[in-house]
């Protein structure tokens, strides 16, 4: 197996999805699996579907196209408001997209009419994260405009929390969001099919004591992939946090004298030196660096310390005997590290635990992506 590589335990991703699906189901909430952190990897997406996700979502059309190219026919939603220049691709590959701009919706409608299709629109509402979203006071008006357009169909509304401002939603905010769902139906008439309450940061609310009201969907990426709740970083009870492992190879071992004074006045070096070893440090280097992942998002092997990293080298210190030259060192990753590693061209993705739980109608065309080990 080549290094560096990300090992993916598909069974754990399936189980994590199942766990969340089974906890949210009784509260009337379905799970949409978010694939952006794994760049729309088709087999990982399929593990989410096998675990009970009702559909997939991604922020980038390139990732959606990768899923479609692998033969996935399940519904895929674009959860970042489309680029005006990509309307054509979005109508082609996504059943539904999240939208905040009337001009974009108009372009999607025109494209859909040309293709003889109807594109689903979910209106993203700004509920306090201050990223993308229509202001609540403008929502009813925009919803009415969408209702009157041909080529598009209003499918629902969505909220998003904790992305830009890092704050988990409060019960009050979620109640306000549910009120908006009722208000839109009051104005527009039809039943809103999708009332999507947010992302993994909504889980404490969704599984907490408050009623979940009109919310019938959550879009979950981090919780499924890493088993953690993003705001606190805490492990979610009963979930696997080790579905992904980053493996890199040792290319140098031994000791180095303490850094010279010259190196220490170099601000770039100082910034990257995480742990300042005193005197002679026992250390080793693995062939992986900033170009491959977010080094600060890796958990170091037990007993070792991150000394520093450059674009292609990761220097680790340890008190005992370092691992031998040519051996492999294993790291767990946080969301940032995972996202970068999955997108890095020199990192191979190795899939483990790929025995399907049950035959799926979604498997055709994916065989080329499997690397059974
Ligand atoms: C990334 C994203 C998600 C998924 O977030 P997680 O924290 O990974 O669950 C959901 N919705 C939107 C709009 C996103 O951008």
TrEMBL record:
<feature type="domain" description="Alanine racemase N-terminal">
    <location>
        <begin position="8"/>
        <end position="224"/>
    </location>
</feature>
<dbReference type="Pfam" id="PF01168">
    <property type="entry name" value="Ala_racemase_N"/>
</dbReference>
<dbReference type="InterPro" id="IPR029066">
    <property type="entry name" value="PLP-binding_barrel"/>
</dbReference>
<keyword id="KW-0413">Isomerase</keyword>
<dbReference type="InterPro" id="IPR000821">
    <property type="entry name" value="Ala_racemase"/>
</dbReference>
<dbReference type="InterPro" id="IPR001608">
    <property type="entry name" value="Ala_racemase_N"/>
</dbReference>
<protein>
    <submittedName>
        <fullName>Alanine racemase</fullName>
        <ecNumber>5.1.1.1</ecNumber>
    </submittedName>
</protein>
<keyword id="KW-0663">Pyridoxal phosphate</keyword>
<dbReference type="GO" id="GO:0008784">
    <property type="term" value="F:alanine racemase activity"/>
</dbReference>
